[in-house]
């Protein structure tokens, strides 16, 4: 788990000490990039993305059981670090006052996602096989969906967005996904699932989910148009959220292994 001083550092960015802290974070990511640069050819990152409440966590649990059942050795899962966001109280504060807390929250999301991937990479240092890491959400969607939407709505200031983009652009591309698995779930279904799971501090309107859905669809369209990914994998696998879990797992594995062969 990250120390709280990271939150303080990100907060300092937002209140004006941008240059010093940006240099610090740039140095931090440079150290990370040097440490894991030798792994670039040994693994691929694939993101499982979708709206809030789309069913990502549930699908990852099913997929993880599938991986264990069939003894699949070269696939690992990195869950979204929601526990860190909850334990620090920053998730609750974000939903209580988006206008005040959106900037710091998105920076913290960026930081914790990178470290979650880094922690997984630590376990692969001695592996010579190509390894697949499936992440719950990606750095792409934190930028193009959530940060961009909050900026467009005026909840993230120009200065905070510039700080966010500065840090985002300093992150090595080894943390970006080679492909995206998009769980396409209607906003009304997402809303029902959010109410059912009753996560502390998670108060989300249906309007917000509809807007997230729109930004997600725009991002997926953009990914398909850009074809900018760094592997032979198809850029996007779109999954119907109503499909059977076992069928979805087989779709995902076919998508992965067709790309590797």
TrEMBL record:
One of its GO terms (molecular function) is deoxynucleoside kinase activity. SUPFAM superfamilies: P-loop containing nucleoside triphosphate hydrolases. Residues 46-243 form the Deoxynucleoside kinase domain. It comes from viral metagenome. Keywords: Membrane, Transmembrane, Transmembrane helix. Signal peptide: none annotated. The keyword Acyltransferase does not apply. The keyword Zinc does not apply. The chain crosses the membrane at residues 7-29. It holds the Pfam family dNK. One of its GO terms (cellular component) is cytoplasm. PANTHER family: DEOXYADENOSINE KINASE, DEOXYNUCLEOSIDE KINASE. This is Deoxynucleoside kinase domain-containing protein.
